[in-house]
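Trying the structure run again after the queue cleared.
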Amino acid sequence: MSIQPKFNSSAVSSRFNRFIEAVEIKQIKRLQYLGEMCVSHARQVPASTGFTDQTGNLRSSIGYAVFKNGVAIHESFTPVLEGSEGAKTGQALAKRVGAKYTEGIALVVTAGMNYAVYLESQGRDVLTSAESLAKQELPKLVEELKKNINRALSE
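Done. Tokens:
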């Protein structure tokens, strides 16, 4: 007498795919959270170490997008003062970078105005400290995700 399964390979595949989708959703949520942290941090850098708003375009160009296989699935670029041009420029830069350089699920944080690089080269903090924050926080978020996955697998 042999053991007969009460399921088929498509049921196993379907269950596995649902699990992968749930993990991807959690990854995306964590990257959104990290993006919000980075943008909030970068926008709050004091003028003494960062920069002074004149038009609001540079601060407005600071934002983020989350990509899945090169396609933006979530983005956040909020104009500051009269900086709607900056928000559009930051968003366009994030989309160019994300489409060209990302695969899988990725976070792109930008300061989209062309003079952001100049300010950074002069020792001003436009995104430098936000990048450091991301490098510090990302491993914690990944570890938390791993724990949640392991917990789900052991149930």
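The beta strands are 62-68, 71-76, 105-111. Worth checking whether this holds up in the mutant runs.
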